[in-house]
Design brief:
Elements (H helix, E strand, L loop, with lengths): L3 H12 L5 H18 L6 H8 L3 H8 L2 H11 L13 H32 L1 H29 L12 H16 L5 H15 L10
Length: 209
């Protein structure tokens, strides 16, 4: 005899089948845009419904609550900005990373600021924020460092190697707080050349013409 849970699964799937993946992406994008504009506390299901011309009841039926919708939006829009970078040198990789992070800082930094306080109160939201915006980039930068060790550019176990990701991603978030400006490509490139590379014992590449 089927269990009550198994009997409920088709009904749940049926209720959630009305939103296509393409429509879900539109909703996720709207959620993140509203977060950047007004912050987590001001985000409402009503606001999302109005922005996307979607029925509020549909949002509640699909995601249940604002936190669940935000978590789904973070997971559903997860991007891999740095994983494709492999120039053949660590200096080249980090300069390309600075370019990619700088291009996205105007989107990612406001989103992280908007969610930081709420995420500290919600382990699920914190986990989603880390998985969507932080961990993929840490993993990509760590992979760049490991490749440089394999090539013999820096020594295995170099004491500064474990801090490369924290430096590059940390300064992206810190600059708006310290100077009131995003960490753009030019700023991050200077940071890589004058701070990270010397700390690893590497010479900066010549400036691009």
């Amino acid at each position: 005899m089927p269990s009550q849970d198994s009997a409920q699964e088709p009904a749940l799937a049926s209720r959630r089948s009305k939103i296509t993946p393409e429509r879900a992406q539109e909703l996720y994008t709207a959620v993140l845009d509203l977060l950047r504009e007004s912050g987590y506390e001001s985000l409402t299901m009503e606001g999302v419904a109005s922005r996307t011309r979607c029925g509020k009841s549909t949002l509640y039926r699909q995601w249940g609550s604002k936190p669940e919708l935000v978590v789904a939006a973070l997971h559903g829009t997860r991007r891999m900005l740095l994983s494709h970078i492999d120039t053949g040198t660590l200096a080249g990789d980090l300069r390309e990373a600075a370019r990619a992070i700088g291009e996205g800082s105007g989107r990612d930094t406001p989103l992280m600021h908007a969610l930081s306080h709420a995420a500290l109160q919600s382990p699920e939201l914190l986990c989603a924020l880390r998985e969507a915006l932080i961990l993929p980039e840490i993993a990509a930068i760590d992979a760049m460092v490991r490749r440089s060790m394999d090539r013999g550019e820096i020594a295995a176990g170099h004491p500064a190697a474990e801090y490369v990701a924290a430096q590059l991603l940390g300064v992206m978030r810190a600059r708006p707080l310290l100077e009131g400006r995003y960490a753009d490509e030019a700023y991050l490139t200077r940071f890589v050349v004058t701070t990270i590379l010397p700390g690893l014992g590497l010479e900066a590449p010549p400036p691009e013409s």
